């Protein structure tokens, strides 16, 4: 177990050093976050007073969900810089290496998410107490675990189809809209509502909103996404192993 | 008794319709320095990638210490290190030291473990230079040091001295000899330099017509 912890630790070290070597990007990232919140806050204020609270939780969920495809960028950058040769030389399976890398990225992501929440509390009149914050940390980790299959599939796709990131961005954007990130799914056309109810993200987002906005814990909403996640996880691992073997055969593992 | 640590049996590899190896066989003895040469695109780097487990053969087998690495790639990962000939391969914005610390942490080692090699390869003055600002010669030395972090039994080197000055070349040659004698490593290196091959290696293999030919 210690060796895996050390591997995660090494990736955290690399992430922190990289963040501080791109200081300008670091500052711009938080400025972007602030500007994004200002824009949404302004538009929401034109609709209704409580709409921003609704949207804030949607945006928060969207951030958590899009984090599940973060390995796509990592793999892409590792292929560009050819650092994939040093990381994939570590004496662990490629799957373990990517998973440890993902754990490191998730640690950094939790800090970023916390900053996002603090911004919202300080400047945008979002009322969250300590209990809510603890709940959000657990919810984030839970969501990331439930969507681990999506992380693995998106990583496999990055190896298999070069420049596939736009496809994933498109899928993520559609999932955002259909899950009710920006507006309630009841305003969608009936056919799209049917699709919404098939998505596990819809239930997770409803669970998040119920818990934070209405202080109502609706565990039954977690049933479908959990089953969905645990069924697809072994399938996604099989897909990853198949893609890896294929890349090793055709020699395109390190090529973007 | 001769111990063969790398045995290649009926190896075939092609990329699409382009053949690289056709039913090729070769064996490399333990604790030797072996040179690998051949024309451009003859398959030298491909062979190193096959031995290190970064590529899988189309047919045939590669054994490392009697382990079929197509079936047991983890064994190749644990025993083989690959020193590449590229200006990339490390995190560009990170300094040489930060890159090495990252690798040391991943291999459960400390930075002190690589310090002797840093001293030997005169890299101390460049440790705080970002990788992207380093010269090709410095990058080459960093590749060599990073390959030694995991304490490999087999070291694969791809045209290591291509971008280094004559003084640094000698330092690298001395280190390679020391790795063989003191650390008992088996070294397989790709080179086009006949003088380098003759002065350094115990065994010389050429790739010709998709097969291995033993010269020495």
SSE layout:
The complex is a heterodimer of chains A (256) and B (216).
Chain A (H helix, E strand, L loop, with lengths): L1 H20 L1 H25 L3 H17 L3 H10 L3 H4 L6 H30 L6 H17 L1 H13 L4 H15 L10 H9 L1 H14 L6 H31 L6
Chain B lengths: L3 E12 L2 E12 L3 E6 L5 H9 L6 E6 L2 E2 L4 H7 E4 L12 H11 L4 H10 L15 H13 L5 E5 L7 H16 L4 E5 L3 H7 L2 E6 L2 E4 L2
Parallel strand pairs in B: 3-8, 3-9, 6-7, 7-8
Antiparallel strand pairs in B: 1-2, 1-4, 4-5, 9-10
Give an account of the 3D structure:
- The complex is a heterodimer of chains A (256) and B (216).
- Chain A is mainly alpha-helical.
- Chain A is built from 12 helices and no strands.
- Chain A has helices spanning 2-21, 23-47, 51-67, 71-80, 84-87, 94-123, 130-146, 148-160, 165-179, 190-198, 200-213, 220-250.
- The mean pLDDT of chain A is 93.
- Chain B is globular and about 45 Å long.
- In chain B, the strands form 2 sheets. In chain B, strands 6-7-8-3-9-10 form a 6-stranded mixed beta sheet, sandwiched between helices.
- In chain B, a hairpin with a 2-residue loop joins strand 1 and strand 2.
- The longest helix of chain B has 16 residues, at 166-181.
- The interface between A and B is medium-sized, with 32 and 34 residues.
* Low-confidence parts of chain A: none
Q: Approximately what portion of the residues of chain A adopt beta-strand conformation?
A: under 5%
| Morphology call of chain B | globular
Strand and helix order of chain A: HHHHHHHHHHHH
Cα-based radius of gyration of chain B, to the nearest Å: 17 Å
């Amino acid at each position: 177990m210690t060796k895996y912890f050390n591997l995660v630790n090494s990736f955290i070290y690399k992430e922190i050093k990289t963040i501080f070597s791109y200081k300008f990007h670091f500052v711009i990232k938080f400025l972007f976050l602030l500007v994004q919140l200002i824009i949404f806050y302004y538009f929401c204020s034109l609709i209704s007073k409580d709409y921003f609270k609704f949207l804030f939780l949607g945006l928060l969920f969207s951030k958590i969900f899009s984090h599940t495809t973060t390995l796509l960028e990592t793999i892409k950058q590792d292929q560009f810089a050819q650092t994939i040769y040093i990381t994939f030389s570590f004496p662990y399976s490629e799957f373990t290496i990517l998973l440890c890398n993902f754990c490191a990225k998730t640690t950094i992501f939790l800090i970023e998410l916390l900053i996002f929440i603090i911004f919202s509390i300080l400047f945008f009149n979002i009322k969250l107490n300590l209990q809510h914050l603890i709940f959000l940390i657990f919810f984030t980790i839970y969501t990331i675990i439930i969507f681990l299959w999506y992380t693995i599939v998106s990583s496999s796709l990055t190896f298999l189809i070069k420049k596939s990131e736009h496809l994933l961005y498109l899928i993520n954007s559609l999932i955002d809209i259909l899950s009710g990130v920006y507006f309630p799914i009841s305003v969608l056309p009936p056919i799209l509502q049917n699709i919404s109810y098939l998505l596990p993200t819809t239930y997770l987002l409803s669970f998040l909103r119920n818990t934070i906005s209405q202080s109502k814990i609706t565990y039954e909403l977690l049933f479908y996404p959990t089953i969905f996640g645990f069924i697809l996880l072994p399938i996604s691992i099989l897909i990853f192993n198949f893609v890896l073997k294929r890349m090793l055969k055709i020699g395109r593992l390190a090529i973007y | 008794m001769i111990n063969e640590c790398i045995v290649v049996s009926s190896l075939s590899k092609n990329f699409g319709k382009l053949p690289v190896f056709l039913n090729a066989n070769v064996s490399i003895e333990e604790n030797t320095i072996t040179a690998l040469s051949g024309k451009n695109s003859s398959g030298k780097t491909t062979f190193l990638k096959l031995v290190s487990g970064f590529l899988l053969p189309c047919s045939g087998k590669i054994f490392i210490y009697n382990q079929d690495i197509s079936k047991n790639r983890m064994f190749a990962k644990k025993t083989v290190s690959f020193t590449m000939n590229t200006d990339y391969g490390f995190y560009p914005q990170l300094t040489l030291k930060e890159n090495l610390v990252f690798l040391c942490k991943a291999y459960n080692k400390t930075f002190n473990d690589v310090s002797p090699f840093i001293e030997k390869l005169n890299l101390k003055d460049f440790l705080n230079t970002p990788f992207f600002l380093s010269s090709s010669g410095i990058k080459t030395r960093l590749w060599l040091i990073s390959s030694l972090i995991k304490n490999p039994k087999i070291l694969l080197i791809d045209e290591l001295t291509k971008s280094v000055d004559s003084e640094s070349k000698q330092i690298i040659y001395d280190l390679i000899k020391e790795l063989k004698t003191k650390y008992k490593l088996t070294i397989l290196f790709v080179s086009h330099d006949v003088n380098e091959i003759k002065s350094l290696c115990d065994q010389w293999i050429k790739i010709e017509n998709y097969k291995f030919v033993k010269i020495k």
